[in-house]
Amino acid sequence: MPNRIAHQDWTTDAARDSLSDFAERLLGRILLLCDDFGRYYADGSIIAAGSFPRRVGQPKLVSRVEQALAELERAGLIGLYSANGQRFIQFRDWRQQVRAAKSKFPEPPAVAEAPSDIRCAASDSNCDHPLSSAAEAGSAPISISNNDSRIATTSSAAARRRILCDWPEGFELNDAMRQYAIQRGIDPEIEFEHWHADCLAKGRQYRDWEQAWRTRINKAPQFGGGARLRSRMRPAMENLARIAEGGEP
User: Fold this and answer.
1) What is the per-residue pLDDT for 246?
2) Where are the chain's structural domains?
């Protein structure tokens, strides 16, 4: 079972604070059961056995788990969907490290069948998908029953979150990203090329790709690449600074 991170902002999250004690406890245990993509079986008996192994066989445990799952879905913290004749969970607010290249479970139908306007567009580097399956600040949640595979939207605040996504199609350096790197002495073109290759090779996913770029630039010196690039660019940067001050190049 992989290690997971509990984020500090969970203590101030209104959706979590509205949960019953049992549902909140179950949410933390489901976090440990999910695969690297935040998915797991939406089967009360399987979840009960995995979440409470010392309580297996207790009366009404499975029914309590199933009731709590419905409560978590209403709160916008998980999405439930059907695929291949089974029901599954998609954990929302999935800010965990993705190590696996592929999920152990089928994708929610909305992932495979979502219309083009909710996919990663070339002009949308933030990937704001209206998708119930996962999300940091809540997107329109997937609430898929056995007889309804459409995306169901809700008005709850927890349903407007972003989800992790792969490298967006057409995502390129823009002026703001380039300037951010230059101000920190990093060659934006070379660093972007290295970052792109790294993201594709390791299957990195982010909710906000421009923020991920800024983080990359901030951490570049720690990994040698940024420091090397700064050294290479320093003469040109100093030359530009002298020109800006009215001196001779």
Assistant:
1) 64
2) 8-159, 175-244
